[in-house]
């Protein structure tokens, strides 16, 4: 496959890496391959996914998936092995999406900085930062103990809920990524981040606008992908009171919390192998791989547990979405927002 090898490690802002696509020129569509059948794409996707992934608590099981136990109900996605592998794909997607970098804020972690990774998930970002900056102290917190036990000596993980009172002191850099549909009160969270930064410290927020779009009109509201994502977004907002598309709102929350030197960047993340540019094609393959893996994880608990749909209804809906994705008839993408600011 063209583009960067999935094994290439992401870098910090100081490294010379591939430029990320920002919200400027349209993403050019590549010509479809001569053999454009479902089996060809499935084989291509399987090879890509295999190159990216490898294979304490009494976790509950619902709809055939395992969920976290701590503050049960505050997070609506699984924490089983399949979901953990998808979260590692998300890490690859987001680091590639911003130029193969771990973060963008101009923070100096070469010295003895104290870093907090909010909602660390599998801990892959915290571990990567800990390996690159051995003098920094990295703490990752999450609702589930799904992180590995063998980690760099400067990295540790805690079971915690960031929407509860914080007790772990002050930090020089606080990082938050992919908290879509997870937070009840974003202004409160961003305010807590500000309060727990040392003077001169930085915070960085990276998150989605999940609503797909195309620049050439190839995707419409009649596509099952759009029907699915709009139902997901509406349910998250109206039934769960959680924002599924926090990306465009991050800058406002950061300003209101009192940050200065704020920078807001927007990146386009294509869905599928349609971009002509090799780097964007690589991002698109990673994106569609994580979506196909996550369709069930996103949908079952919310659509069945909240909306009362049957598993059969949900599986029929998802089958139609998958069929569209494998057919590669549209050029969908969504926006990924990065906002960072400093506490003076």
TrEMBL record:
GO terms for molecular function: methyltransferase activity. InterPro entries: SAM-dependent_MTases_sf (IPR029063). Coiled coil: none annotated. PANTHER family: ABC TRANSMEMBRANE TYPE-1 DOMAIN-CONTAINING PROTEIN-RELATED, METHYLTRANSFERASE. Residues 1-43 are annotated as: Disordered. It holds the Pfam family Methyltransf_23. Keywords: Methyltransferase, Transferase. Residues 14-24 have a biased composition (Polar residues). The keyword Transferase applies. Belongs to the methyltransferase superfamily. LaeA methyltransferase family. GO terms for biological process: methylation. The lineage of its organism: Eukaryota, Fungi, Dikarya, Ascomycota, Pezizomycotina. The keyword Glycoprotein does not apply. It comes from Thelonectria olida. This is S-adenosyl-L-methionine-dependent methyltransferase.
């Amino acid at each position: 496959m063209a583009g960067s090898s999935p094994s290439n490690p992401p870098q910090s802002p100081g490294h010379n890496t591939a430029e990320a696509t920002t919200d400027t020129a349209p993403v050019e569509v590549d010509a479809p391959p001569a053999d454009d059948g479902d089996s060809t794409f499935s084989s291509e996707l399987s090879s890509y996914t295999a190159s990216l992934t490898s294979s304490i608590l009494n976790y509950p099981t619902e709809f055939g998936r395992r969920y976290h136990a701590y503050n049960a109900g505050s997070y609506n996605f699984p924490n089983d092995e399949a979901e953990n592998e998808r979260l590692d794909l998300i890490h690859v997607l987001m680091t590639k999406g911003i130029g193969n970098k771990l973060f963008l804020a101009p923070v100096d972690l070469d010295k003895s900085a104290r870093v907090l990774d909010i909602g660390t998930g599998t801990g892959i970002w915290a571990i990567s930062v800990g390996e690159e900056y051995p003098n920094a102290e990295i703490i990752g917190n999450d609702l589930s103990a799904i992180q590995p036990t063998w980690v760099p000596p400067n990295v540790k993980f805690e079971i915690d809920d960031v929407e509860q009172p914080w007790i772990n002191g002050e930090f020089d850099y606080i990082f938050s990524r992919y908290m879509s549909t997870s937070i009840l009160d974003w202004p409160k969270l961003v305010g807590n981040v500000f309060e727990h930064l040392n003077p001169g410290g930085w915070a960085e927020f990276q998150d989605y606008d999940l609503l797909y779009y195309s620049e050439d009109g190839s995707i419409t509201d009649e596509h099952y992908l759009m029907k699915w994502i709009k139902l997901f977004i509406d349910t998250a907002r109206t039934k769960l009171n959680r924002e599924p598309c926090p990306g465009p709102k991050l800058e406002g929350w950061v300003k209101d919390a009192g940050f200065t030197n704020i920078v807001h960047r927007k990146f386009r993340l294509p869905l599928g192998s349609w971009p002509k540019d090799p780097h964007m094609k690589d991002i698109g393959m990673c994106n569609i791989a994580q979506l196909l893996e996550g369709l069930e994880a996103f949908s079952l608990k919310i659509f069945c547990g909240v909306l009362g749909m049957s598993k059969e209804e949900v599986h029929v809906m998802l089958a139609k979405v998958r069929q569209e994705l494998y057919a590669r008839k549209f050029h969908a993408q969504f926006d990924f927002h990065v906002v960072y600011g400093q506490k003076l």
